[in-house]
Design brief:
The protein is of the alpha+beta class. Helices cover 24% and strands 37% of the residues.
Amino acid sequence: MAILISEIPDAVAAELAFGAFSKAFTAERAFVPAFIAEDLADLRVVVAPNSIKTTLASRGSNTTEAVVDIGVLKRVENDLSQVEELIGLVDEIRAFLNRRALGAMPLAIWKSEEVNPIYSTDELKNNRVFVSVIRITYFIGS
């Protein structure tokens, strides 16, 4: 089964709309999730494709794994107490997607997740921007 690189991030962004989180956000898909600090006054949750790996499963079929990155970004100004709240949101998003089927892509099966960095100390120290990345791998069934 061939998939488009944008299909999995679109499905993840759509799935996040069904969650009840402690902070309101609208997940967006971006191929180049690059922002300046001024763009991050409001919370941004960005879903981006990371990689797709297809391997031979049998003579007539392949298996595919797709990896997406979910970035949680917010300028925190001088209020570092927001960092703990944002770490909590990262954990909520991670837990919400854990083993969850994607309604827009039912053949995608959650395989693994990693949060790295939990938050970027460099971005926080140098730019007062909270940046965390949740990386999720999906197995694409056929």
